[in-house]
Every structure is written in C-alpha cells, then in structure tokens.
C-alpha cells in the first residue's frame, strides 16, 4: 500500500524529526543520555501507537457507536441523565484507554448523540475535553505523563490508583459540577431515543468488543502496558485483514503525535543535561506539606499551559523526589492543562474534531472558563492528595 501524505503535514513531521536528529548528532544530548532516554520512552511510545491502532479499529468496527446507543437507551429520555452517562463514559474511557481516546473518539460520538436528541452539543463537548485531562491521573495508562511517572515509581497499577484516587475524584467531580452550572438549563431537556446504529460487519464488532474487554483488565494487571496493547493491536489488525483489509492503512498509527512526543523528550532531556534541572529545583521547591505540594503543582500547571504538559513533566520531574510530590506534579500537568489550546495534545485533537462537526467555541472563552476552573481545581486536588496521604502540613 502506498503511503500518501499531504505536503504540509509531511513537512511538519520531517521538521520535528530533523530537530530531534540535530540535537542528538550535534552532541547537545550526550549519547549515554540518549540511550537511557530511548530505553525509557520507547515502550511508552509503543503503547501510544498500539493503543491508538486498537481504538481506531474498534471505532471502525462500530464499537463506540454501540456505546452511544447504550447511553441513549439508558438516558430514559432525560437530558441531564444522558449527560451523566456521558460523564461516566468519559471517565472510564480516560482512565482505561487514555485521554486521547476520550478527546478523539468519544467526543464526536456524544456530539452527534446530543444532536440526534435535539440537545445542545456544547456541554457534551466541554465535558469530554475537560475529563480527558482532569480524569487522567488514576492509572498509568490514562496519560503519557503517568507512564513516565510510573517508570520512576514502578508500583502495581492498583497501587498507583490507590495513591491517586482522591485527586481523581476531585478531577471528575469539579469539572462536571461546573458544566452542570453553566449548562443546566440546556440539560433540562426531554428527548426521543435516536435510531440505533446498525453494524456493517457484526463479526468485526463482536471481535473488537471482545478484544477491548480483555484489554482493559490486562492494562491494570501489572504487565508492561505495551505488551497487552500490542497484542490487542495485532489481533484486531489480523481480523480486519481478513474481513475488511481496506481499513488498514499507515494513518492508523499516530505518526505526528509519536514524532512530536519523541522530539519533546529529546529536547527537554538535552536541556536537563545543560542546567535546566538546577533552575527547576529552585523554582519548584521541596517538601511534602500542602503549601509545598501546591507550589509544585502550580508551577507544573503554568508550565503545561505555556509549553505543553509533556515537556513540563520532564522538566519538573527532578523536583518530584517523593511519591506524593510526584502525585502533585501529575495534578499540575494533567488537571491543570485545560487553559491554553496547546497545553495537551488531547485539547488540540479535540478541537479538530468539534470544529469538523460544526461546534463553535472560541479559544478565548475556552481559556477563560478553563482558567477559572483551574484555579479552584488544582488546589482542591492537591488538598485531596495531601489529606489522602495523611501527611502533616
């Protein structure tokens, strides 16, 4: 199959890789540091690529359309109930299948579901983009930043969830509460159930559902997450090769996201090797008390909204010397990444999806509302983390 690339996209992709190559070959990043970085992030990028293939193929099989049908049926003709079900679906999707799945796959499903039910799509779209970020602290697989942290703090995924459950609850409850306050009148709506989706290929739908159902517990089993995600991607690829080979194409692999993440890792690692770590330690402080944790989370949230949450995490990781400080850092770069469009890749992907569906929300309004939420959410989540760990102030 020939690989077809739009010229502008190819140019951007090559530019990112050229930057990474230049950093390496010019010696800005020492070879030993590059080898250590590749050993650390290679499996993470492999997981990102394979889980994306799984989600894309499951979407093509109609699995997430079935989820939308179930939400519509369980909503009992009530707007606020169908919205609560979307909150639950976005939370589960983010926690187990990553924030990008919620932003890219679930968003168009719930937007179209809202329109079929003659409801405003805005509260549904805002719910998915916020929860894609704010519900992404529970498990290692929820966010690439979590996978980076998991490498530094290799506990069982259940132990990871046990440490992060309190900020996770805050990260779901407060954004949902704000959406309700902003759009409660639009959600007070009765609807007729839309027509159910008819699967074009039922065997593929059943296969996809079975593979995803088996994948979810495997991702929290303690096995390196790239192993079950790769196995799931191989199984679904084989099924589509038999039933619908035309679906298989190079674009299933998220080349842009992987290349951008790889280069960001290289650039930040090079900066760390040339003095960034010292500056970061001074800025982020030390200590496990609430003020010190809030300071770290606040700096992390600011950095995420200025440059992006991936380089923000890598730059600030040396300041997270204890598990609770690592948790505060994740709160900042995950829950706090909802103000600027570039704070996380999921936000940009979300905006592409909703814009293509004709949903209009200006970046100015998005940023102002996100800022208002962040200044409440981050301190509350840090407080929940601190109280859950029972540490003195």
Automatic annotation (TrEMBL):
Residues 10-320 form the Citrate transporter-like domain. The chain crosses the membrane at residues 13-29, 41-61, 81-114, 162-183, 204-220, 255-276, 296-316, 328-351, 366-388. This is Na+/H+ antiporter NhaD/arsenite permease-like protein. It comes from the Bacteria. It comes from Spelaeicoccus albus. It is a multi-pass membrane protein. One of its GO terms (cellular component) is plasma membrane. Belongs to the CitM (TC 2.A.11) transporter family. Belongs to the ArsB family. The keyword Transmembrane applies. Keywords: Arsenical resistance, Cell membrane, Membrane, Transmembrane, Transmembrane helix, Transport.
